[in-house]
Each structure stands twice: as C-alpha cells, then as structure tokens.
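Q: I have 473 residues here and want to know how they pack in 3D. Can you give me a structure?
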Amino acid sequence: MQAPLVLDPDRLFPVDPATRTVARELYESVRTLPIISPHGHVDPRMLLDDPAFPNPSELFIRYDHYVTRVLHAAGVDLTALGVPTRDGSETAAVSPRTVWRTFCEHWPHYAGTASGYWLQDTLVSQFGISVEPSAESADTIYDAIQRRLDDPDFRPRALLDRFRIDFLATTDDPLDDLAAHRSLAADPSLRTRVAPTFRPDPYIDPNNPGFANAVQRIAEWGGFAADDFGSYRDALADRRRYFVEHGAVSADHGVLQPFTEDLPPAEAEALFRRVVAGTADAEERTRFAAVMLFEMARMSVEDGLVMTVHPGVVRNHHAPTFDRFGPDMGHDVPTATRYVEPLRPLLDRFGTNPEFHLVLFTVDETTFSREIAPLAGFYPSVYIGAPWWFLDAPDAVQRFRAAVTETAGFYRGSGFIDDTRAFLSIPARHDMSRRIDAAYLARLVGEGRVSRSLAERIIRDLVATVPKQVFKL
C-alpha cells in the first residue's frame, strides 16, 4: 500500500480553531498576489532560450545542493547522483531514472526539512503526484513528472506567468555583458521584469580564491595596470552603472564577516598594491575586503543600487569534496556573525542617508533580535533580510518573525526573499512565507494586540508593498 502524498490546506496555520480561521482568511487575501523576487539565482538564459526541462533528476536533484546534501549525509556518493568530478575522471555512468530511484528511497530523510517542504509542495501542486516517493513508487512518479515536462505548456516562460512572478532578479558577474537581459527586456511578450544583480565578491575580496584572476580581468577590460587602485575602483563603478542601465536594482555581497573600514585613499592604494602583489598578510587581506565593502556602500549612495549583504557562511568546508567536485556541493556551513561593530564605520557615514538602502541577511539567527533588528529599528537605511539558506525553513521563519517584530515592527524587513536556483520551488517558498505571516498576525489579532483591519493591511503590505519600497521598485 503506497502512502498518499497530500497538501493540508491549513498547513502552517495555528492549531487553535478560532486563530486558524483568522489565519486562513488573512492568507486567502494575499494567496494569489503576484510574486516579487528581488534576489535569486535563476539563469536568465533559461528564460531567454525557454528549453524544456530535461528530466526529473536534472530538475529536482542534480543542481540543488539543498537536496544533494541530505543524500550525501545519508552516505550516497555524489557521483551516484550524476555529479561529475572537476576533472571528469569519476563521472558515473548513472541514468537519470537511477538517480531518481535513489532519491525516492531516501524520501524519509527529508521529513521535517525545508527541502522536504518545498519538494512536497512542488510535487503535489505542480505535478499532481498523489503518492509518497519510495522505492516502489519511484518509476511511476518519474514517468508522471516526465510527461508533464514534455508538455510545451511546462516551459520556463509559461511558468513565469503561471507562477504570477512580476519581478525576478538574477545574480550576475560584474563583467557579464548582460546580453540575455537585453534580449529579455526587449521582448514584448514577457510580462515579468527580469533584472540583473551586481555580485562583485571575487573582484573585491582578496580571500576569495578567484580574486587575482578577477582583478586581472577587470584591468584588461578597463585597459589599466592591475595595481592601479584608482582605475580599479573607477572600473567597478563603471560596471555598476552598466548594470543600472540594464535594469539592476541591487548589488549583492557574500562575505564571511561584514567588516567595513573608511580608509584614506593613499592608504587604501598602498594596501591594494600589497594585496595585488601577493605580499599582504591575512590581516591585511581582510582589511582590504573591509575597505571595499565600505566602497561598495559609497557607490550605492551614488548610483542607487540597494546593497544586500549575505555574510556568515564558511564556503567549501570539506576540502576533499571541494578538490573532487568543486564549489556549491552542499558543504557550505554557517558561522557566528557580528554586525554592530563591523558595520559601524559604514553606518556612521551612510546610515542616515536617504539614498542608501542596506539589507542585512544572516544564517546566525541569534543576531536577529540582538543586532539586526535593533540596527533596523534606528537606522532608516537598514532593513532586515528575510531568513536565508539554513533559516528559510518554516520553524526558523516563525522564530524570525517573533524575534524581529517586537523590536523593529513589520515594515523594517525586506519582504520575502526566495534566494533560489530551484525555479519550480519559488511559488512554494513564497506561499510558505504568506502562511507564516498570516499565522503570526492571526495570533496578534486573537491576543488583542492588533486589530483585524490592521492585520489585513499589514499582510498585504508585506507581500505587495514592502519589497517594492526596499528594493526601489
């Protein structure tokens, strides 16, 4: 007997019947509102070329490190999931159907996880799957999904409309020519606004493995010596302006710690020369990264790009996996993060500037109530980034809402951010956020802390107004 796979229409709502009724009604008021996705990693070329999704394993497993890390932890080698090694020497001759069977056999490992929530929602709501994945049901589910993927109505462009995505931001290298974005912007049949995002990490952080190559690339692009700090800084500003001209609204920064430093130009230039020459020590490299994060804030004031900061992740924690497979294989892990003192130089200079918007994310949820919410509760430039990566799970989002609202209220947040490459999971992620906010507001209504009419306004603003204001849409 195969176990049924169902979506409870009241999932994530309070158990108390009266509060659940209020939550259900609040949720229904925003359930079908368009999606605004100001930070994500969908490939714009996929939207331009509009290819059919190849098979269930490629779609759900191969490129989703949320999914593969669970299987790896259960003892499944990445080559058994069709992941090639960096040098190609260990590429497994494994069929997509075999990969899918392995995934289905491990379905219980996803129970209670964020990945399990997205997967279940997507399987039921988009593919009509009605039985739980298992060894027995794997082939039946695979065939049902494949039939749907073969349907011309299930291509990326059609799904943009079906998902009601009004705005979708991608993440792009500063030297990308943005040709795909130009083509998308010129297409009158595309209802969704697709915008690039300036992501300069390899160009400004000497601790990034690709820093030396990135600096050389931008020097060659600009026609200047690689150790010319003024030209290097001007070139970054030029590339930012190029992104703005192509519709960008934000610049994103993935740093280990959000250190910032306001250094006089002559000292910054001398530090840069040491960094480029390879003579800077670890402290100097970290200091230069702090100088450049400060510079990015200054540039945001000038060009209007919203500055988003995603700190606190130790990348490629397992060296053997990195050596064998490369980055983005699920072995990035969170670390403790500080904001108050590291950001003080930046906020002293720009924190009250009306042209500056700074969105602070974290994977260290202890910082929500201790640092980020208090900063957003004073500085008009600071906004609280939605729970990200390891925290974008239902229980963590519930804790987030309680942790930040009493200090900063509902209007100092970023709005929900899906931050995903998994295109098909975007609706499930935004739906989860709307359900949790409905549940939280319903409790406040039931406790007499917020009026019903105000709750109705707030939940609509969280979906439709707040992200537009924060990201200047």
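Q: Anything worth noting?
A: Residues 282-303 form the longest helix (22 residues). The beta strands are 35-37, 165-169, 193-195, 250-253, 306-309, 313-314, 333-334, 358-360, 382-384.
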